[in-house]
Specification:
- The complex is a heterodimer of chains A (297) and B (356).
- Chain A has two domains: 41 residues, no CATH class; 223 residues, MetI-like (MetI-like fold).
- In chain A, strand 1 and strand 2 form a beta hairpin.
- Chain A has 13 helices and two strands, in the order H-H-E-E-H-H-H-H-H-H-H-H-H-H-H.
- Chain A is an all-alpha fold and 297 residues long.
- Helix content of chain A is 74%, strand content 2%.
- Chain B has 356 residues and is α+β, with helices and mostly antiparallel strands.
- Chain B has two domains: 232 residues, 3-Layer(aba) Sandwich (Rossmann fold); 109 residues, OB fold (Dihydrolipoamide Acetyltransferase, E2P) (Beta Barrel), CATH 2.40.50.140.
- Chain B is 25% helix and 34% strand.
- Chain B has nine helices and 22 strands.
- A six-stranded mixed β-sheet of chain B has the order 6-7-8-3-9-10, with helices on both faces. Chain B has a five-stranded antiparallel β-sheet with strand order 16-20-17-18-19, with no helix packed on it. Chain B has a four-stranded antiparallel β-sheet with strand order 2-1-4-5, covered by helices on one side.
- In chain B, helix 6 links the parallel strand 7 and strand 8.
- Chain B is elongated.
- Classes of the chains: A mainly alpha (297), B alpha+beta (356).
- At the A-B interface, helix 9 and helix 10 of A face strand 6, helix 3 and helix 5 of B.
Chain lengths: 297, 356
């Protein structure tokens, strides 16, 4: 409360502008490695080029094309479905695993190391691992699934391809949610659990009224990170399925690379990049604002 | 409401306690009368919280039994004991309103909403929370949150005992006094047994009718504030309570008489003949005077506290503190002090000699 009044007082006084000088180096750095490269994309997105550094002004034509393109709609839908599915699996699963992890003793470090392992493996290695692992003829997973009588071939069957891609992502990234949720759980003082015991709260009530609210911040971060990462996923599905069979696992990034480097349509690719970027930015902003809304009250 | 009896309890956090040091609580039997206001006083790490958690059921004692009236509750969980506990740091359910926080323990027990509403409003009014019932609990100040913690205990009918574990730690100094008066008032109004854990003697002495002083996992004395001041059963009590604490001076024994500075001192108690162990005399600064004759001392320093001064003097290696009222002379070198015989006691191994 006192903090709020303090801030209001500060706003009334004249603000010290000197601080901006301290921010300048960062602004310069960000401009150099983010804003300027982004501007070249903007440059491509409004012009047509046939090489030789010759450009023709096109205005918003590429943006209109991309927004009306069925191919883009299909990729976007695939992307949203993929991200939605992995979030629905990874967040509850991560929280559930974090809840069952030991709170103290020797097994804490064992669990943490085991959890961190998948996160340490490079993305293309994960893709390659799962590719071999899931091959129906020689892969351990592929052989097993076929062995129990289910016809499984992720290189030909879209359902199997999706199943494998999602399983791979869950394997690779649930740990991140586990680690964040675990950190959130560990920060809850014992007194909360003791008070809950005295108040006669059951396991569900403890989860609903103590653990979940206390994990809210870390889960917000977890969801944001998993949303951004999965929404921009490229390497793993590219190595695993190459976007196939057909283009059933061609997510936005894969499609973007196909347009930019496969077809060399730089204008539409640049326009698509910007739309892609704005979608990520918008979703993150809306989500974060909603999650933090009652925090500020 | 009920009388709480701890029978021969001992507690250790070690899996297999071997020596004396492994016991966080050494063997004790304590009885807490119905409706009493108790303070559990002692330095950090003396076992206060352990004892409290054994009463509330958060811990099961390694040995011994806990009885609420005629009921053995040793192995009952906290919610079955009908107790309330307020913790050092405020515990509120952040996402709930103040109202829902207060209603939580009742709803967990499946009590009818109409009854819940009546109780919550009643307790809210009692704790001056009526105006904030609809607010989010997380938005309240620390003292408001502590009131909610307390309220969650009080909403249940017939609470056996309300326990406070250093509840004023995070409260602003000027609110501490208010909240403490509120607790006092509540105690008179609802008449429940209250146990208040603190390491602050002022809090303990102003809150409680009976103060339980703990030291090193042992209850060293249970008594009224006056008893603790006038008849400390243990040098620790003398030292811990009072400001400055009691002077504890090594002495030798000669047939039950305490010998200090080469002279026999008149004391209120006598050591039994043939007593063995470390012998000391204890006398509070309030009962030491400058005198024309007695123990020769040098004045070391004097601290002016307004209405009186705390003067530190030395006899050989022993430092003695005494209180000198305002306006009284402090003699220069070559001074003598004398002890009030009625308030000078002999202690053997820390315990008052001749005490049962």
């Amino acid at each position: 409360m006192a903090g709020w009044r303090g801030q209001a007082d500060m706003a009334m006084k004249s603000t010290n502008q000197k601080a901006w000088f301290f921010v300048l180096p960062v602004v310069a750095l960000v401009a150099f490695n983010a804003l300027i490269p982004l501007m070249t994309v903007v440059n491509y997105s409004v012009q047509e080029t046939f090489g030789n550094n010759v450009f023709f002004w096109e205005g918003v034509k590429w943006f209109e094309d991309v927004l009306h393109s069925e191919r883009f709609h299909a990729s976007l839908l695939r992307q949203l479905s993929f991200t939605g599915i992995i979030l629905v699996i990874e967040i509850p699963l991560g929280v559930a695993i974090a809840l069952t992890m030991p709170q103290k003793g020797f097994w804490v470090s064992v669990c943490l190391v085991l959890m961190a392992l998948p996160l340490l493996i490079p993305w293309n290695v994960v893709g390659a691992m799962w590719n071999i692992f899931a091959l129906p003829d020689i892969g351990l997973l592929g052989r097993m699934i076929n062995g129990i009588g289910i016809d499984y071939n992720f290189t030909q069957d879209p359902t199997a391809a999706w199943f494998t891609t999602i399983l791979m992502d869950v394997w690779h990234w649930t740990s991140l949610v586990v680690l964040l949720a675990y950190a959130g759980l560990r920060s809850i003082p014992d007194a909360y659990y003791q008070a809950a015991k005295i108040d006669g709260a059951g396991g569900w009530a403890v989860f609903r009224h103590i653990q979940l609210p206390k994990m809210k911040r870390v889960l917000t971060i977890a969801i944001l990170l998993r949303f951004m990462d999965s929404f921009m996923i490229y390497t793993e599905p590219f190595v695993l399925t190459g976007g196939g069979p057909g283009n059933t696992t061609t997510f936005l990034s894969i499609d973007l690379v196909k347009i930019a480097l496969g077809q060399f349509d730089l204008g539409p690719a640049a326009a698509m990049s910007l739309i892609y970027f704005l979608i990520v930015l918008l979703v993150c902003w809306v989500f974060y604002t909603l999650m933090m809304k009652d925090e500020d009250q | 409401m009920s009388m709480i009896t701890l029978k021969d309890i001992r507690h250790s956090y070690a899996a297999s306690p071997a020596d004396d040091m492994d016991w966080a609580l050494k063997e004790m039997s304590v009885q807490w009368d119905n409706g009493g206001a108790y303070a559990l006083l002692g330095p950090s790490g003396c076992g206060k919280t352990t004892l409290l958690n054994i009463i509330s059921g958060l811990l099961a004692p390694t040995e011994g039994e806990v009885w609420f009236d005629e009921r053995n509750v040793t192995h009952q969980p906290p919610d079955a004991r009908n107790i309330a506990q307020v913790f050092q740091f405020p515990v509120v359910y952040d996402t709930m309103s103040v109202y829902d926080n207060l209603a939580f323990p009742l709803r967990n027990r499946g009590i009818d909403e109409a009854v819940v509403d009546k109780r919550v409003r009643e307790i809210g009014a009692m704790l001056d929370l009526s105006d904030t019932l609809d607010k989010r609990a997380s938005g309240l100040t620390a003292d408001g949150k502590q009131k909610i913690s307390l309220g969650r205990g009080l909403v249940r009918e017939d609470v056996n005992v309300i326990m406070f574990d250093e509840p004023l730690t995070v409260i602003d100094p000027h609110l501490k006094w208010l909240l403490r008066s509120k607790l006092k008032e509540l105690h008179q109004r609802i008449g429940a047994t209250m146990i208040y854990v603190t390491h602050d003697q002022t809090e303990a002495l102003t809150f409680a009718d009976q103060v339980v002083v703990m030291h090193d996992g042992t209850v060293v004395q249970i008594g009224t504030p006056v008893e603790l001041f006038e008849r400390p059963q243990h040098t620790f009590v003398g030292h811990f309570i009072g400001s400055p604490g009691m002077n504890v001076l090594p002495c030798s024994l000669d047939g039950g008489k305490a010998m200090f500075a080469g002279r026999a001192l008149q004391t209120a108690n006598a050591a039994p003949a043939g007593a063995k162990g470390r012998s000391e005399i204890g006398v509070r600064p309030e009962f030491v005077r400058f005198a024309g004759d007695g123990i020769p001392v040098n004045v070391v320093k004097s601290i002016d506290l307004g209405r009186f001064r705390v003067v530190e003097v030395r006899h050989g290696d022993d430092s003695i503190k005494l209180l000198v009222p305002e306006g009284e002379e402090i003699p220069a070198d070559g001074a003598y002090v004398s002890f009030d015989p009625a308030h000078t006691r002999v202690y053997i191994d820390g315990w008052m000699a001749g005490a049962s």
